[in-house]
């Protein structure tokens, strides 16, 4: 409920996140001290990819099970993890590939 940044996937799904988590667990999103107000930041990735990716920026959550996802989705997740420097997702993607 206290999320302070909203991203919009290429297929129109909104994701409300905490900038502090993004700053701590990734390197490719706006810094925590950046003000974006009510702006929705559009991302080129689809919602299925972002749903998985954003699970890695909340360390208290269980790591997503990547064993049952398609190779196509795994490739998209790996690409997004590298692009946005979501460090915890990269090794898991490489293991599955």
What does this structure look like?
This protein is α+β, with helices and mostly antiparallel strands. The chain has helices at residues 19-25, 47-55, 71-83, 89-96; strands at residues 5-8, 14-17, 40-42. Helices cover 38% and strands 11% of the residues. It is globular. The termini are far apart. The model has no long low-confidence stretch (mean pLDDT 87).
Short key terms for the protein model shown above:
single chain, 97 residues, alpha+beta, three-stranded mixed β-sheet, 4 helices, 38% helix, globular
Task: Give a brief rundown of this model.
The protein is an alpha+beta fold. The protein is built from four helices and three strands.
Alpha-carbon Rg, integer: 13 Å
Q: Percentage of helical residues?
A: 25-40%
Helix and strand composition category: alpha+beta
Instruction: Report the β-strand fraction as a percent range.
Output: 5-15%
Number of helices: 4
Q: Care to count the β-strands?
A: 3
Inertia-based shape:
globular
What pattern of helices and strands is seen along the backbone? EEHEHHH
Strand order of the largest sheet: 2-1-3
Write down the overall mean pLDDT.
87
Q: Largest sheet, described in full?
A: 3 strands, mixed
Distance between the ends: 35 Å
Low-confidence stretches: none
SSE topology:
Blueprint: E1 5-8, E2 14-17, H1 19-25, E3 40-42, H2 47-55, H3 71-83, H4 89-96
Parallel strand pairs: 1-3
Antiparallel strand pairs: 1-2
